[in-house]
Automatic annotation (TrEMBL):
Domain Transcription regulator PadR N-terminal span(s) in chain numbering: 12-95
Top-rank taxon, per record: Bacteria
Annotated spans, Disordered: 182-227
Protein name: Transcription regulator PadR N-terminal domain-containing protein
Amino acid sequence: MSRRSGILEFAVLGLLRESPMHGYELRKRLNTSLGVFRAFSYGTLYPCLKTLVASGWLIEEPGSTPEDALAAPLAGRRAKIVYRLTAEGKEHFEELLSQTGPDAYEDEHFAARFAFFGRTPQDVRMRVLEGRRSRLEERLEKMSASLARTRERLDDYTLELQRHGMESVEREVRWLNELIESERAGRDLRGPASGEPGSRDTTSGAPGGLPRPGNSSRPDTPDDTAT
């Protein structure tokens, strides 16, 4: 399995952990909630779904809404397919959430992992955050050394671009430091629940105000008959 396909499977399982979805809705959620998948097609999504179905982690069901039931015979097409996580799929997703290997610190995988921090145990969150910070600090050190060696040979625009890249990494390191400090202090980044000052919700939402994987309104879905 490629790293990219592994990230996509993780994200698909995570979103379907919240609720069953049509392929169209799932693609839209991946695009809007997880920006790392902003540019990918059904040609990428459906092979992933088929793999997850074949692995026993998802099942396919006909659409259950009245619109789904009426649209298919009127248009001469099959009803939309809804994808639902199986018990084995839920267990597999929980196993993936517990992993803290080097892949969890890489740019694309970290973004996907962070989006599901609301379902991730606190000790795992800490290991992922600290691993990401360490990876970026190593990157900063290499960037700084490279800039020192090549500064005199670079034109002003290339030099400015490299400085911009370093500043972006430095900003993320500062952000990670704040997150790690909050985790260690036991502070909830989501803030207290409405009407419950100081209350802490450890099961829903993602830190930092990220979209909650299962809390967006259901969009209008066009015919979706791919499987």
